[in-house]
Write a structure and sequence with these properties.
Layout: E1 5-9, E2 13-20, E3 34-40, H1 42-52, E4 57-64, H2 67-78, E5 82-88, E6 94-101, E7 106-111, H3 120-124, H4 127-132, E8 133-138, H5 144-156, E9 160-163, H6 174-177, E10 182-183, H7 187-198, H8 212-219, E11 226-230, E12 236-240, E13 252-255, H9 268-282, H10 288-302, H11 315-322
Parallel strand pairs: 1-4, 1-8, 2-6, 4-5, 8-9, 9-10, 10-11
Antiparallel strand pairs: 2-3, 6-7, 11-12, 12-13
Helix pairs in contact: 1-9, 9-10
C-alpha cells in the first residue's frame, strides 16, 4: 500500500526579490545591493518543504498560461511533486515583490493573479488525492471558497487538516477555523485571528514576552483544537484544547528557537508549516512536540539561505546540522 500523501492546496507565486540596506521611505529611491528572481508562493514553498523532508507530496494550485506558469510546472516536476494545475488564461501567474533588508527582515507585496481564480470545483474533482492523503495543508493566498472546499473534502475523508493562516484573509471567520485541526500563525497573524474569532485585541509585538498560561488562554479563544504560534527568534508556542492531544503530555508548552545565522526570513513560516506536515505523516506514536521541534529546525535552516522555495532544506541538511535524532 502506498504511504499517505502530504496534500497541499494553495498558491504559486513567482518571486522578484531585492536586497537593500533598509526599506525605502515614502517617496525615496534606494539602490539595491542585489536582485534575485525565484519560485515562491506560500503553497508552493510548503509543498517543496514537504517533499524535501521526504514526504510524498501532491499540490493543487492555479497558474496563468504564461512563462511563469510554464516555469512552475517544470519546477514542481523537478522537486518530485505531483502537481495538479488549473490553467487560467484570463489571469497572470501570481507574483511577489520582496524587499529584504540587511538584517534579514523582509517586506512583501503580492499580486495573487491566478491564485484567486482557483475553482472549488477544480479542487473537488481531485477527490482521489484527498482519499489518499494523511494530512491536508492550506493557506490563505487563494479564493476562500477553494480553501473551504479543500477543508470540507479532507474532513469527509478523515484527513488531518492544518491551516497556515497567511496572509489573514478578509473573509476568514470562526466557521473556517472550526474546520481545522491545527493552525500555525505567526505573531501578527495570531493577533489578527484573535480579533476576528473572539474580539480580543492584543499587541503582536508583546506576545513572545507573555507567560505561557496567558498565551494558552488566548489560543483557546480561537476555537481550534491545536494552535502552534511561531514566534521568530523566540521559537514557538503550542496550545491544545486538552492534555494528551496528538500525543503531547502537556496542554501547552514552548519550543526554543535554534541558533542560526539569519540571512533572509522569506519563506520561513511556510517552511515551518511544510516540514511540520511532513513530520506529522511520519511521527507514528511520537508526540506532536517532536514534529514541532523538527519543523522549527527546518524553518531556522531556511533563513540561512536567500530565497523562498529554493531555501527549503532537505532532510539530510537537517540531520547534518542537528544530528541523527533530528529526522522526524
Amino acid at each position: 500500500m502506498a504511504p499517505p500523501l502530504a496534500l497541499v492546496v494553495g498558491s504559486y507565486n513567482h518571486d522578484y526579490a531585492w536586497r537593500v540596506e533598509r526599506a525605502p521611505r515614502a517617496g525615496e529611491t534606494l539602490r539595491g545591493d542585489a536582485f534575485h528572481s525565484a519560485p515562491g508562493g506560500k503553497g508552493f514553498n510548503q509543498a517543496v518543504a514537504c517533499a524535501r523532508q521526504g514526504a510524498p507530496t501532491a499540490f493543487v494550485a492555479a497558474i496563468g498560461t504564461d512563462a511563469a506558469g510554464d516555469g512552475a510546472r517544470r519546477l514542481a516536476a523537478a522537486e518530485g511533486i505531483d502537481a495538479h494545475w488549473q490553467a487560467c488564461p484570463e489571469a497572470a501567474t501570481g507574483s511577489a515583490c520582496i524587499v529584504v533588508e540587511a538584517h534579514g527582515q523582509n517586506r512583501i507585496i503580492v499580486a495573487l493573479g491566478a491564485n484567486e481564480r482557483l475553482d472549488p470545483a477544480f479542487v473537488r474533482e481531485r477527490e482521489a488525492l484527498f482519499a489518499a492523503a494523511g494530512v491536508l495543508l492550506v493557506q490563505l493566498e487563494n479564493g476562500i471558497e477553494a480553501t473551504r472546499a479543500a477543508l470540507d473534502l479532507a474532513q469527509a475523508h478523515g484527513v488531518l487538516r492544518v491551516l497556515n493562516p497567511a496572509p489573514v484573509h478578509d473573509a476568514l471567520d470562526a466557521g473556517l477555523l472550526a474546520r481545522c485541526d491545527i493552525v500555525t500563525p505567526n505573531e501578527s497573524e495570531f493577533a489578527l485571528l484573535l480579533e476576528r474569532a473572539g474580539g480580543a485585541r492584543v499587541d503582536a509585538d508583546t506576545l513572545a514576552a507573555r507567560d505561557d498560561a496567558e498565551l494558552h488562554r488566548l489560543a483557546r479563544g480561537l476555537g481550534v483544537a491545536s494552535v502552534v504560534v511561531t514566534l521568530a527568534a523566540h521559537g514557538c508556542f503550542v496550545s491544545h484544547a486538552d492534555a494528551g492531544r496528538h500525543g503531547d503530555v502537556q496542554a501547552y508548552y514552548r519550543v526554543d528557537a535554534e541558533r542560526v545565522n539569519v540571512v533572509d526570513t522569506t519563506g520561513a513560516g511556510a517552511g515551518f508549516a511544510g516540514a511540520l506536515v511532513a513530520a506529522l505523516l511520519r511521527r507514528g506514536d511520537r508526540p506532536l512536540r517532536d514534529a514541532v521541534v523538527h519543523a522549527n529546525r527546518c524553518a531556522a535552516l531556511s533563513t540561512e539561505r536567500r530565497g523562498a522555495a529554493e531555501a527549503m532544506p532537505r532532510a539530510a541538511d537537517v540531520e547534518l546540522r542537528f544530528g541523527s535524532g533530528s529526522r522526524a
